[in-house]
Amino acid sequence: MRLTICKHCNDAFDKNSRRKREVGGYIDECPSCVEELGTETSETIRGVISGDGKMACIQILKFSSKSEADQYCSAWNANSGWNNRRSGGLDDVKFQKIGENAGNTNHKGKL
Q: What is the band of 97 on the pLDDT scale with cuts at 50, 70, 90?
């Protein structure tokens, strides 16, 4: 394990640690400084899947924060089931759809 020196506080940290991967930030910033200074600027993106026939539909969504993404995914997973419209709590979280691959129920040309 090789330690890196933080450019803000001069503490040594492991840049490959789990906590560093979770909080992000530049490679020469320790996890504590990333959280304190708010230097993580990457977008929070999640993919959600719903089953439809033999081909699932996947949507790629962008959120403004990790907590909103986690809240949405938790509500998404709680609202599962046959013919569920997935409405319970999902409208409470703002997101932007950046991609979608819709399922095809008629995947073999049968009606």
A: very high
